[in-house]
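In response to the reviewer comment on reproducibility (Comment 2.3), we provide here a single inverse folding case reported in full, input and output, so that an independent group could reproduce the run without further information from us. The C-alpha cells appear first.
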C-alpha cells in the first residue's frame, strides 16, 4: 500500500521560501528529516509517517534548491553555512528550540555539520548511511581529483555544467538506476577494476542490472519533479565542496549530543570502515547495520530503518514521545 505523502507547509526562512512536509502533533518532540542528492523530502515518506504516529513532530523539508523550495541563483548560497542556517530557521518557524536531525547522503553531511555549527539547536543526530567525517587536513575535492581524475562526479561538477545537462536529458534513466537493488556486495564491488569503480555521471545514466525497488508511482514523483526543476540548484551544493572545507577551519570537531549511525552494508559510496573512528569525535554514538542494503537505505529497507530510529529515539531523545 503506497504511503500517502502530506501536502507541504510553506515557511519563509533565511531568505527563501521552503516547502516542509509534516506528520504528528505540532507540540510533539521535533525530528527533522534531511534528504540527500538527488532526492526530495519524499525520500523520508515511510519514516515521516511512522514518526508522526509515534507522537513526534516530524518535519521533512525539500531543502534549498530542491523540489518546491526556492532555488537561489548564486552558488555560494548553497554552502554549508546557508544549509545549516536553513535548519535553524525551520526550527524557529515552528517554535522549536532543538530537534533531533536525521540525514541521508548530503543530508547526512549537513546534519552532522549542524551539530558543529549550531550545537544549541541539536538534541541528537541520526546519520542514515552517512557517518560523521571530521574535517580533513587537505581540500577533499583536490584529494578526489588526484585519486580519480576529472571524470569523478564531484570533480566534474566543478569544471562545467555538462553533468547538469546530461542528467536533465536522462531523468528517467537517472531515477531508474538510483533505485535499483545492487547485484553485488561491497567486497565484490571493491574487487572491480578502478575504471569500473570511478563514479562518473555517465555511469548514473547507462543501464544497470538489478530490480527497481520503488514502485512506478514512487519513482515518477522524482522523475516529474526533476523534469520540472532540473538538477543545477541541487548540484550547486557540491560546487561549495572546497569552500565548505576552507570556511570551517576553526570549527571544533566535537559532537556532544547522542548520535546514531545506521550503516548500509553494501553501499559503494560509504566503505565499511568509514566512521570507525567516530568515538574520537562524538561523546555518545551507537551503530546499527542494515544487511544486504545499498545507498538509498531508508527507501530500500524502510521498515528496518524506521525501527532502528524509533528504538534509539525512545531511549535517547529527551522529552521522548509517550
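Designed residues, in position order:
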Amino acid at each position: 500500500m503506497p504511503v500517502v505523502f502530506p501536502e507541504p507547509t510553506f515557511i519563509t526562512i533565511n531568505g527563501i521560501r521552503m516547502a516542509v512536509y509534516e506528520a504528528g502533533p505540532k507540540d510533539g518532540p521535533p525530528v527533522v528529516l534531511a534528504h540527500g542528492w538527488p532526492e526530495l523530502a519524499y525520500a523520508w515518506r515511510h519514516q515521516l509517517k511512522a514518526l508522526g504516529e509515534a507522537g513526534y513532530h516530524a518535519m521533512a523539508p525539500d531543502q534549498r534548491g530542491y523540489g518546491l523550495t526556492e532555488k537561489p541563483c548564486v552558488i555560494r548560497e548553497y554552502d554549508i553555512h546557508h544549509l545549516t542556517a536553513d535548519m535553524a530557521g525551520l526550527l524557529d518557524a515552528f517554535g522549536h528550540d532543538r530537534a533531533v536531525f536525521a540525514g541521508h547522503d548530503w543530508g547526512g553531511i549537513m546534519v552532522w555539520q549542524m551539530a558543529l555549527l549550531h550545537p544549541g539547536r541539536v538534541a541528537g543526530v541520526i546519520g542514515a548511511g552517512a557517518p560523521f567525517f571530521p574535517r580533513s587536513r587537505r581540500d577533499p575535492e583536490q584529494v578526489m581529483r588526484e585519486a580519480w581524475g576529472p571524470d569523478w562526479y564531484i570533480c566534474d561538477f566543478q569544471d562545467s555544467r555538462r553533468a547538469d545537462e546530461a542528467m536533465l536529458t536522462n531523468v528517467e534513466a537517472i531515477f531508474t538506476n538510483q533505485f535499483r537493488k545492487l547485484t553485488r556486495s561491497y567486497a565484490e564491488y571493491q574487487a572491480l577494476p578502478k575504471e569500473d569503480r570511478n563514479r562518473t555521471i555517465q555511469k548514473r545514466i547507462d543501464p544497470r542490472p538489478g530490480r527497481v525497488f520503488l514502485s512506478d508511482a514512487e519513482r515518477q514523483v522524482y522523475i516529474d519533479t526533476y523534469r520540472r526543476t532540473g538538477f543545477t540548484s541541487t548540484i550547486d551544493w557540491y560546487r561549495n565542496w572546497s569552500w565548505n572545507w576552507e570556511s570551517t577551519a576553526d570549527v571544533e570537531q566535537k559532537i556532544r549530543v547522542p548520535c546514531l549511525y545506521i550503516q548500509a552494508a553494501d553501499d559503494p559510496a560509504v566503505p565499511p570502515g568509514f566512521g570507525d573512528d567516530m568515538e574520537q569525535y562524538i561523546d555518545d554514538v551507537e551503530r546499527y547495520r542494515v544487511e544486504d542494503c545499498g545507498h538509498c537505505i531508508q527507501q530500500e529497507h524502510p521498515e528496518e530503518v524506521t525501527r532502528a530510529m524509533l528504538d534509539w529515539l525512545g531511549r535517547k531523545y529527551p522529552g521522548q514521545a509517550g
